[in-house]
Amino acid sequence: MRSLALSVLLALGALFAATPAAAADPAPAGQMIWAVHFTLAPRWLDPAESEGTITPFLTLYAVHDALLKPMPAGAATPCLAESWSQSPDGLLYNFVLRNGVRFHNGETLTAEDVKFSFERYRGANAQLLKDKVKEIRILDPRHIQFRLKEPWPDFITYYGTTATSAGWVVPKKYVEKVGEEGFKKAPVGAGPYRVVSVNPGIEMVLEAFEGYWRTVPHVKRLVFRSLPDETTRAAALKRGDVDIAYFLNGAIAEDTRRTPGLRLMAVRSNALFFLDFRDQWDPASPWRDQRVRQAASLAIDRTALNAAEQLGFAGLTGNIVPRSMEFALPIDPDPYDPARAKRLLAEAGHRQGFDGGELTIAPPYEGAGEAIANYLVAAGIRVKMRTMERAAFFTAWREGKLKGVVFGGLGPSGNAASRIQLLAVKGGAYTAGVVPEVQDLFERQSRELDRRKREELLHQIQRLLHDRSIFAPIWENGFIRGVGPRVAEPALALIPFHPYSAPYEDVRLKP
Question: Do both 441 and 492 map to the same domain?
Fold first, then answer.
């Protein structure tokens, strides 16, 4: 079911989150361990560093909190803000902060921290947000007001969902005291868990913060353990060394499903995987020709790939915007047609095929990436596979250092506009080039307050990107998780379309 549309949230004005913890809540107990499918980067403990992917929120949901964020109640649920409102002219957004919220170091969270965190934010879409905001006024310690330069219907989309982490709040006094490097080494937040230790790249250990406003966490200690090898993760789950294992695929996932005491939980997340033809913007590259890009898409058997890698849980699509998002246009995936792919290559002057350069694969999706490389080679597009460490991959992709073709996925929440912003317009974190018509339509929709007209403009953009084969969408990720026998509530299905456990204060072990 589609998340509650942000337009509905705007119409309602204010939503209230769960009630504060009762004094009689039992003390947290026990330890839960997650086997994470990539190398853990310490920067994902800092809300200022969000990179336009869902990855950092694996840890942000534990250590930090936001004014608004996706929760079981909706896409932009009030959390640190107990309520918010918008002025009739669309220029003012007022937030009332929850009373008595404290950071892990005991400091009271105030409007000063909110303003400081917004101004400190330097992650994906930071410039877009700051260009739209004219002024931030602190009315008193519990009231803060954002004044926009002009009405912008997507302010809450960017500020109150995982489209950015600009609304996640850190303690101003502490950051100024220890400095940026000191904060990275010992982050302090207002979330349900505090940091105990970080072994960079290997393990993070967190402990319950019993002063968390929403509820006292059930589990005393959380451990995130980096186990990049899928076989190792599955074996650790079978032995009981870990309680939840992320990213199990194909035969390993099927074997896990057949193992007594273990269960699979798959989610159709907002992470949409696609081929990004980075070299199409180079006039001298064969990828410049739309027929070549279309041939690459037609060469891939998505149905077989889905069955082999994701047990059929992925959602095949022809759009870079997930169907679950507001303003998404459903577009069928390109069919598997290798004969037509070869004809298109011949028409483009590549009857004998051509060297397509590197195919850089987002880790740990090397299995799917290798299959895609084989499909391309079979059609006559000779590519060389390249793999990287996950944090380095996203940095290189975002900084425009990857050439050839990228097979990757982006999974933050938001709507069609925020997803298009990441990929296809000026200033987008992962934009390699811009179609002028797309840029014009995007700018028009960003100023359009009529929802129906705005949807029409966004649908035009999505159709344009598809018809010109700017990208080759593969699937909406069917993210498979394995859950062990000690877990009563893994919190893997509480927030719609979220791939990781959350809210962490809701995870529970069996008695």
Answer: no
For residue 372, which phi and psi values (nearest 5 degrees)? -65, -40
| C-alpha closest to that of 206 among 71, 33, 46 | 33
Give me the domain span that covers residue 368. 268-478
The total number of structural domains in the chain stands at 2
Query: What is the helix (H) or strand (E) element at residue 191, kind and residue range?
Result: none
**Does residue 367 form part of some domain?**
yes
H or E segment and range at residue 140: strand 133-140
Select from 293, 267, 268 the least CA-distant residue to 468.
Answer: 293
Strand ranges of the sheet holding 143-148, from the earlier edge strand across to the other edge: 81-86, 92-97, 143-148, 133-140
Which stretches does DSSP call E strand in 212-353? 221-226, 244-246, 263-277, 315-316
For residues 507 and 65, is the Cβ–Cβ distance under 8 A? no
Closest alpha carbon to 106 in 167, 174, 46: 174
Q: Is the pTM of the predicted complex or chain greater than 0.85?
A: yes
Residue closest to 331 by CA, chosen among 192, 188, 461, 509: 461
Give the SS3 label for residue 408. Answer: strand
**CATH number assigned to the domain comprising residue 382:** 3.10.105.10
- Range scoring the smallest mean pLDDT among 2-16, 90-104, 163-177, 479-493: 2-16
Residue 25: the pLDDT is 75
Task: Detail the DSSP E strand segments found in 343-444.
Answer: 354-361, 381-387, 405-410
- In terms of DSSP bridges, do strands 193-199 and 221-226 run parallel, antiparallel, or are they unpaired? unpaired
Token pair 């890698």 is at which residue? 309
